[in-house]
Amino acid sequence: MRLFLLAALTMIAFAANSVLNRLGVLSGVDPLSFAVIRLVSGAVALAVLVWLTGGAFSLRGRKRVFVALALAVYMLGFSLAYITLDAGVGALILFGVVQMTVFGGVLIGGAQVSAAKWIGTAVALAGLAYLLLPGATSPDLWGAVLMAFAGAGWGVYTLLGRSEPDALGATTGNFIVASLLVAVFAAFWPADRLYSATGVSYALVSGALTSAMGYALWYRILPRLEAATAGIAQLTVPVIALAGGMVFLGEAVTLGFVLASALVLGGVAWSILRG
């Protein structure tokens, strides 16, 4: 039960990032600047927390650079894709690719994915498609490619996190290196920078709270989860994010949302309990 509650809290943090990202962009911050502020503020918050707890982190090593690169690819792909991509299609591409990446990593590692997990994943993805696709426009090719890279980056970040012995130290190192990579990329990206006090505040909350603490918690529980289960659990994030939009953005509750949520949550529950 404790593991379930921690996993649920992590999924809520991930969903909160989506809501905060939408609020920040709507408040006048361009997506790339939001990503930079989010990563840098998260890195600072994590470094302070490590210092306060007497811990340590490392910025060296091939694995640290590779994991941080995966995190940077996710952040950049996610931010840039939504410039041209419909939100619903983007979420479906993102989590579909995350699932394929995680399942692919499991199979390459020699483990098996049970039939229950395959069936539950298919049901949950069908629920997401029903929830996100109606009314969506045809996806922009470049945006779809960027979101696919984002999904692959997050899938790799999830897989590699299962072998981290120090969740807080590892997440801190990942954020610092990734923030440097994204900041350098943003410095050369040819686009106007937009800022507003409200939008920047949303980015700071997303970085220092829901990203930094949420990702550290994710690395804390990943070693106790099967890789396939960790991937499947994340299919609940779009549903939680839409529910958050209904609470904080005043979006309407529809019968389609209720039915799709039942499919997604039922598929996830089937995958985990039957698996």
- What about the largest sheet? none
Quick one: overall form? globular
Determine the strand fraction and express it as a percent band.
under 5%
Strand element count: 0
Structural class: mainly alpha
**Overall radius of gyration:** 18 Å
Instruction: Count helical runs.
Output: 11
Mean pLDDT: 85
Question: N-to-C terminal Cα separation, in Å?
Answer: 17 Å
Tell me roughly what share of residues is in helical segments.
Answer: over 70%
**Helix and strand succession?**
HHHHHHHHHHH
Low-confidence stretches: none
How does this structure look, described?
By secondary structure, the protein is an all-alpha fold. The protein has eleven helices and no strands. It has helices at residues 2-26, 31-53, 62-81, 87-108, 115-132, 141-161, 167-188, 197-221, 227-233, 237-248, 255-274. Helix 4 (87-108) crosses helix 6. The mean pLDDT is 85.
Brief sketch in words of this structure:
The chain is an all-alpha fold and 275 residues long. It is 78% helix and 0% strand.
